[in-house]
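Form 7-S
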Amino acid sequence: MTKSMAVLLTVLAASSCITDDRASRARGASGWFENVPVYKAPATSRCAKFKKGGSAGAACDEAKYLGEIYVRRLSSGDEVCLEGGFGDRPLASCLARASVADTDTNRLLLEVRNAQPGSKWFNKESNQFWFEEGALVDLYLADHGY
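Output:
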């Protein structure tokens, strides 16, 4: 083994041990060093628990459709209510407000802007999170009673 190959192997071994667990502030950071948490879409839809053909199933399917439209129309700079009314304009009843920092194929980067003490997002202000579209549609359904 040559000296340059030994140096290369040492550098590669050392770089695999380095991790950065700080919240990323890079808009849409991607690649090997991305450390922005990702909220994935659930494996099954909330509407699957309702019997097909029933009025509850039809209402859930309609709410899912409206949620998909709402999520797909979001763009950078839009403000959303992340807890306590996702899909509605952020009002006083909203426990956590966020803004869309960036978009990508099938996902949005949300930055938590303001969270009230009772919110699960309270200690996460100014942090960014990737949400798959399906995860946001699931949030929409949950906030609308499904």
